[in-house]
Amino acid sequence: MPLHSFRQRRRIAITLTVFALLAMLGIVWIQTGRLADVSLLTGGTLLCCILLLALFGMRRRLPILPLGSVSTWTQVHIYMGFFTAGVYWMHVPNLIGNGIFECSLSIVFLLVTLSGFYGLYASRTLPKRLTAVEGQHRFDRVEWHRGQIADHATKLLEELSVHVGIPVLGSFYTQHLNPFFNSRPSLAYILVPTGVRRRRLLSDLRDLERYLESEGRSTAGRFAALVRRRDDLDYQFALQLRLRLWVAFHSILTLALVAGGLVHSFMALRFAG
Amino acid sequence: MDASMDDADVLWLRSREPFASMDAKAFPRSIPLEGILRNDCRIKRCEPGEIIVREGDYGNSAFLVIAGSTKVIVDSLSPDQMGRSSPKKLSWFQAFRQFLRRPKVAEARLPEQVTTAIDSPTTSSSIRQIDDRPAIFLQDFNAVLRDHASVELGPGELFGEVAAMYRSPRTATVIAATEATLLEIRWQGLRILRRDKRFAASMDEHYRTHWLNVHLREVPLLRYLPEASLVRVAEATQMRSFGRLEWNADYKRTRNLPVEQQIESEPIVCEAGRVPTELVIVRSGFGRLSQQYGASHRTTAYLGKGHIFGLEELSYNSVRPANTPLLSLQNSLRAVGFLDALFIPAETFAADILPHVRRTELPEKAASLLLQSAEQRLEMGSDRRQNARKQNTSVSENTDIESETGQQFQQTALLEFIVQSRLNNGRQAMVIDLHRCTRCDDCVKACSDAHEGNPRFVRQGVSHDRLQVVEACMQCSDPVCMIGCPTGSIMRDQETGVVQIHESICVGCGTCASACPYDNIRMAEVFDHQGRPYRDMTTDMPIVKATKCDMCSKLPSGPACAAACPHDALVRIDLTESKPLQEWLDLRS
Amino acid sequence: MRRDELQLPPPPNNDRPGDRWMCGRSSGQTPCVRGPSDRGICPMERACRVKRSWYGRRRHALLVATVLLIAMLLFMIKSRHQLAIIKPGDLSNPHAQILATTVTSQRCAACHPQAANTDNLWFNASSVGHQHLTQTDACLDCHHKTIPRKVAKLAHNLDAQQLATLRLSRQRLASLAEYSDTWQDLLPGPAVDMNNIQCATCHREHRGSSADLLAISDTQCQTCHSDRFGSFATSHPDWQQWPYGRGGEISFNHATHANKYYPAKRQDGKGTPFQCAQCHQRNTNNEISRAASYRVACGSCHDEALKLETAEGLTLLALPILSPESAARVQPWPEAATGFYDGPVSPLAELLLQADPDIAKALQEIPNHDVAAVETPAAIAAAETLAQGIRQLINEFASQGQPALIKRTQRLGLTPESVQALLRALSPQLVEEARQNWFIQQAQSKLDPAADSQPTPKPKPAETNSNGTKGLPEAPRDPNDLLGSDLLGSDLPGSDLLGSDLLSGDSLLVPNPNTDTDPLALDPLGTEPLVETEPAKKSPPTNGLDFDADSMLPGGGWFRDDQGLAIRYRGSDHDDPVLKAMINIIRQLPAGMPTRERLLQNRAIAACIACHPGAIQRHGRWRSRPLSNIGQFTKFSHASHLNVAELSNCIHCHRVAGKSSSASLLTGMLAPQSPHGQMDFLPLTRESCSSCHRSGASGDNCTTCHRYHIDLRNSGTISINH
User: Fold this and answer.
1) Which residue, B545, C448, C539, C568, has most beta carbons within 10 Å?
2) Please, which residues have CB within 8 angstroms of residue A10's CB and are 6 or more apart in sequence?
3) Are residues C112 and C219 in the same domain?
4) Contacts C35 to B, Cβ<8 Å
5) pLDDT beyond 80 at A138
6) Interchain pair C10, B527: CB under 8 A
7) Are residues C28 and C102 located together in one domain of the fold?
8) Contact C498, C320 (CB under 8 A)
9) Are residues C168 and C197 in the same domain?
């Protein structure tokens, strides 16, 4: 395979997808014109597409076989996803089905599609935001890092030898830092990670400096560093969680979609005509 | 090195050749001959059938036969004979079955994977403890000797010194034919011993006659040289080494130094601004090209094995019009850790090399000068040049060789980063594009699936800008991990260049793991499939094995990590050249 | 203070992201080398609480989701509400209303035979008994009234032969019109079998309650058609005559009325202008009626003339005048009917007499159906036989009444009803009276001059002939003939009356203006409304027995004509029941039958048929209806068009042709079939429709103007009306 730059590759793939959609649209138009049962055609295509798309999950779970690189599969998956959304639009009379089952099925399809589109957006934008933040934390180790930071903060306080600073930093620690270091980030933060929390704590710490002598200031500075680190960690956690949640959401709903789609096709074939 | 050398041993050695005839005064007072013998040498007793050195191994010591007989096997032995299980490619079905049957226990091994059974009919080698060291034996070595041509090395003969001095793989396997006593001399010792003129001369003589021609022939620039010129070049060539051969030990210490300090600490080979007198051909190790920039040096390129320094300046100086000034060196060359180079004097270059170098391979300045003079002689239209090119390309040997004079990147920072982290050593470095990586860890999971549930790397490592170089074995071009393996279980595959660990003969000593400057080899405690740890019968210690990335060489799929990345973020790439990475980056700009 | 100076230890590098569990020892401590087992058990003596890795959590979620999914599917299969759940969308309102009364479990089966007899309609194959039952059959269980089952699955509900007919006529049309080659012709043909089209092919259900079951696109319509086209405006095939030329049962020439009669009448400033709405009024549905009633539309101009025509009426029978010799042979024969051979045979009597084979034969012997022409002995014998037959007819009717006549006509294949309708108002008593008058009284009076009655049968003829041409027996017949046959073209009773009148010589001048008028009153305005006949006839009544039909029977009716020794009917005006009954009888007679032709020549009847040509056609239609099956493939409603101000003016579309243009339109292909034989309108162009009927405006779908389902049960034939 010749090497194409991403931009080139995108252009080729979009062209192909558009052509495929147009071809499909043409076939559907012709078939509708000749009074053929178009829903069988589009439905069959849709089912095949969904199965192929779902096969991507299988491929990801079988990394040991030379079935083509997963990134190639991803490209096919993405553009086939667009194609499938188009075919869905040709298949359904309304965007959301009428019956209870069909309604649920179409909602599931739309959820899967939308989560796919979101995933495409997220997987192209979030990594840059992640890279911009210091530290490449692994998701499963986030808690370990949190523990480390919390322990380090405790140790910093214990090491503080100057008695003047102890009440100042100690009370601040117990009131603000300890809850911050020892709890998980709030749901709101996970949904929308902002710098508000971090800025507030840092400015509070800076305000404390007037009450501290040099060693205390140094400790406060270390606390500030820990706060920054912890905030970066939470930021990474929130974004990584988002990236992982949509994959899980997408794949679990895909399961429902495949099952529902099969049942739907079974019934459609059974009741056809 | 070894506390086993006592004064009696040193004295005894001193009485024997070649040490008996050495002049003790030639050695500095701080490092007397006796000190070398005591600290950098040790006596090694070998039993019949023991494999002393293996073909393909990297070693940092030479061996002097003191008593007994050793045999050099002329042709290669099969990996099986040396206790290495030849990695067989699995079929799809086998790979799938292995995937499904992967053990639930971490680092689970079957008994035969843990040790080489002595009476196992399948393997012809075994590991035995000799004195206090593990040694690997060739089973039925008489039959091996009968089947293979061999050369006997008797007392007083030295072998393995080239591999030790010049960081090249051993070229042959040596087996103890009888019970033999050898003196193992570390490369540091060898170096100092060269102060003795006779010893040095004999070593040089040996190198020149046996190896220099070979090494010169390996240099692409010289591939059209006629035999006579080559002989003259070889005569004039000097060999010099810079830095520490065991750079990896230094590197671990200095890796966190600021760049300017690190550059300062690197031994300088040629300095910018001087008129070049010699052409430098890097034989092994790494070099950094830098220019003064502000208060420090700015790296402009890096050199690796086979790269040439000073070609542009020298060739220009040779062909320049008579009244123009000489071109001085534009870059400084420093040894990054360790550099071993051949120095060819400028006159020899002008007389014997330049006429035989293809003009397209020459730097632009010199090439254009050459062309001007050539056009006066005969009309070389572009058509004819094109034709000439076409003819040339039809012969595979005649193709142009690109970027011999140093690896550069558009971004200096990236270059600095790569040299600073010594990533230019990596031939299969795992590079992640952080702007596309969703941190899904599918790569690690794929690695885990490909290795029976045990990932061979962790998604961490130094990063620069949008690139992260993951701590996975890079299959280095200078594999320091392979130095000093007692059983030869770590081994580079000749075809693929993959450094592999043959676990059944790995004794878990950890030499390789501690040698790897990138922390890419991990020692893993092994368990059976029920989760019980394997223990050494004699010491009752848990058995550990060295584990590292093997590029999934057994699998039909190739490296699973790269194949598993859904976002084109991960690649296994050759960093010894700048082109692949540059191209890879260009694709995603 | 820079955080770079903060040295935190690197995380443990023994990640195993493919494992479901990971070591619970997180904070501060390094996780143990081995980690928890596959089942999440920490192998250490002091076991930690292991945690799920992300992979483990995901697996867990997947497991829960799978279980939920299976549960939901099971619920769906086993639930009572299964059918409601799997229903793929609401039915259209009418169907939904019908099914609302059905038991829930049977609702699917109402239309889907596959679901007929299963509790578990998922996994049971279609049962054997219902294998050949299709959904279309289920549709037809309700819809068989509108579409016959036999033809329901045929294209356009037409069988192969009818389709072939259509195709032929289409090809004929195509040879006239240009066949357009469009790219649509390249599209593939239909995906359905033309002889097995399921309802669901076009009528798709489960599209929601307000969905249009009848929606079908132009491409779908055209898929079977050999000549396809794009939009209506640009490429619909042209029509030649539509909507004209489909005829109707009333002969009405718009062109002459509009261009000639109405303007002529308007010259004096009175009368109404020619206005479409005057005749074509809107009915309750706001539709344009096809025709106005006679009284409203035609009567004002045509009433007088028509009355004149119908007053001529019918003659049931008339006694011929026989020579005294013949009369003697016939015996008894009224003296009044004795003289020179005379008296045409009334066609109605001929019809009734034909039942008797002897008389039928005799009738043929009489030349020109007129006894006056009798010369040869054979003819004389035939005339005598005829006379006897007539007498017998009178006797039968007088004694047995209508059944006798019905019996006679049945042999000719006439229905009793039609004959009864004709004779409804004719009482046997009238005939009996006539018999009494003509035969019995005569016979009794003959009892006195019994011997003389036969040899001297001509006191009156003597009188009549004494007027002019005495010597020639034929002479008095000539004016009669001129009047009866040549000038009037029918056996006018009036001529007989005149012929037998003493003043017949004078009367020659009188009836001329009457009889000169065209039977159809083609030029009614040109004639003077000579309604009142000259009172010439009124003078003759010399005794009480004299009967003047004109003055005494203005409403029409049967009467006995003692002068002409005939039983006659006098017509009233428009819509005379007896004349209608007569025409109904005529329609039943075989075409080409001489009697039929003679009946048609009757003035009254000709006057009827002139405007109602359909009355003697096969179906016998009196009222105005299109001849061909209107609205088979094409449908049109004026009502909706009239909402457009511009279109409320009829002339916007329908332009009456001028004389010259109407002549050129005579070439219309359907002209021979049309009773008009010509069209009096300029052709309606496609452009006049397409100016509004385009997509985005009034719509240019096929179904806007065309029907798919053709129902032939009422009309029997199809036609194509381009």
Assistant:
1) C568
2) none
3) no
4) 106
5) yes
6) no
7) no
8) no
9) yes
For C34, the closest of B104, B106, B448 (CB atoms) is: B106
Q: Which residues are CB-contacts of C392 (< 8 A; sequence separation ≥ 6)?
A: none
Taking the alpha carbons of C681, C687, C693, C697 in that order, is the dihedral positive or negative?
negative
Q: Provide mean pLDDT across the span B507-534.
A: 89
Q: Are residues C125 and C189 in the same domain?
A: no
Q: Do C62 and A252 touch (CB under 8 A)?
A: yes
The per-residue pLDDT for range C53-78, each reduced to its tens digit, is 899 999 999 999 999 999 998 888 88
Q: How confident is the model at residue C510 (pLDDT cuts 50, 70, 90)?
A: very low
Domain enclosing residue C223, as ranges: 155-235
Judged by a CB distance cut-off of 8 A, whether residue A101 touches chain C is yes
User: Residue C597's CB: how many other CB atoms inside 10 A?
Assistant: 13
Work out the angle at residue B344's Cα, subtended by the Cα atoms of residues B342 and B348, and round it to the nearest 5 degrees.
160
Cα-based distances in Å from C32 to B103, B510, C15, C56, C169 = 19, 20, 11, 19, 94
Question: How far, in Å, CA of C30 to CA of C26, rounded?
Answer: 7
Alpha helix segments (H runs only) across C517-668:
549-552, 577-588, 594-601, 603-611, 638-641, 659-664
pLDDT of residue B403: 44
What domains appear along chain B, each with residue ranges and CATH number?
A: 7-75+149-193 (2.60.120.10), 219-398 (2.60.120.10), 412-587 (no CATH)
Highest mean pLDDT among B156-160, B409-413, C624-628: B156-160
Question: Mind listing the pLDDT tens digit for each residue in C108-152?
Answer: 878 887 766 554 544 444 444 455 678 888 888 888 888 888 888
Asked if residue B321 has a cis previous peptide bond (ω within 30° of 0), the answer is no
Domain boundaries, chain A: 6-133+245-271, 139-241
Residue B559 near residue B483, CB atoms below 8 Å = no
Query: Is residue C210 included in any domain, yes or no?
Result: yes
Q: What is the Cα–Cα distance from C504 to C476, expressed in whole angstroms?
A: 9
Residue of C nearest to A30 (CA): C187
Measured between beta carbons, which residues in chain B are less than 8 angstroms from residue A62?
A: 96, 99
Cβ contacts of residue C620 below 8 Å, gap of 6+?
Answer: C583, C584, C587, C614
Q: Which two tokens stand for residue B43?
A: 């006596």
Provide the percentage of residues in chain B whose pLDDT is more than 90: 10
Residue A4 touches partner B, C-beta closer than 8 Å: yes
Q: What is the pTM assigned to this prediction?
A: 0.76
Task: Note whether C65 contacts A256, CB cutoff 8 Å.
Answer: yes
Q: By 3-state DSSP, what share of chain B in percent is helix, strand and coil, each rounded to 5? A: 35, 25, 40
By C-alpha distance, which of B469, B473, B476 is closest to B447? B473
The total number of structural domains that make up chain C:
4
Could you tell me if residue C179 is inside a domain? yes
Instruction: Choose among A3, A73, A243: nearest Cβ to B439.
Output: A243
Place of tokens 């040396």: B82
Residue to mutate among A8, A9, A64, A244, with most B CBs inside 10 A, is: A64
Would the CB atoms of B92 and A65 count as touching at under 8 Å? yes
Closest alpha carbon to B409 in B270, B585, B260: B585
A139 contacts chain B (CB < 8 A)? yes
Which tens digit of pLDDT belongs to each residue from A243-256?
999 999 999 999 99
Strand B296-303 to strand B332-345: parallel, antiparallel, or no bridges (unpaired)?
Answer: unpaired
Which one of A148-162, B456-470, C585-599 scores highest in mean pLDDT?
B456-470
Closest residue of A to B102, CA-based?
A64
- C66 and C92 assigned to the same domain: no
CA atoms within 13 A on the CB side of C275: 9
**Subunit contact B105:C38, Cβ cutoff 8 A:** yes
Cβ contact, residue pair B458, C14, below 8 Å: yes
Q: Token pair 């649209």 is at which residue? A: A25
Distances (CA, A) of C448 to C325, C335, C362, C402, C456: 20, 13, 33, 35, 14
Length in residues, chain C: 722
